[in-house]
Amino acid sequence: MTSEALWALGRGTGITALGFLTISLALGIATRSGRPLLVLPRFAVADVHRFAALAGTLLVALHLALLFADPYAQLRLVDFVVPFVGTYRPLWQGLGTLAFDLLLVVIVTSLLRHRLGLRVFRVVHWAAYALWPIALAHGLGNGTDSGRVWFVVYAGCCVLTVAAVLAWRLHSNYTEYAGARIAGRS
């Protein structure tokens, strides 16, 4: 595979990963309500959330592998683990590394969810709220497509999606697990 192909695929997988991670975050926020979302029952929303998270994670792994193999990117193994030590735009690359590290924490706690308990899982899973904007900032600052109109529109759609779900979540009418609370009182 040519260097140009590696670079294009590396960029493409990072951009697509942002989309899947946006969907995962939005659905993760939405499933906390205990209500169905649109026409999907809650279990289906949770399944799509998990699928989007897995797809985003696999795309991030592919993004890293492709850029590691690309001689133009000149990434070292330490660049994947230790933030802000990279040679190319260290701040923006470091944010990508930090997002990857947070993603690993969320993955490990998700895999160990039943052993850690629901409370620990939820507390650590809140790292996803930090992971997403850090990954977005990485893409905007380090991405070679960040100056292109289509990418700005794409990133804007991701931001609007998360902002809309957060606004819905923070709205005063939002009732988390209302049915479970009412049933528990009787």
UniProtKB/TrEMBL annotation:
Position of the signal peptide: none
Localization: Membrane
InterPro entries according to UniProt: Fe3_Rdtase_TM_dom (IPR013130)
Domain Ferric oxidoreductase, first and last residues per copy: 13-135
UniProt topology in membrane: Multi-pass membrane protein
Domain of life of the native organism: Bacteria
Chain segments annotated as transmembrane: 6-30, 51-71, 91-111, 123-141, 147-168
Keyword Signal in annotation: no
Keyword Transmembrane helix: yes
Keywords, in A-Z order: Membrane, Transmembrane, Transmembrane helix
Cited Pfam families: Ferric_reduct
Protein's UniProt name: Ferric reductase-like transmembrane domain-containing protein
Organism of derivation: Mycolicibacterium komossense
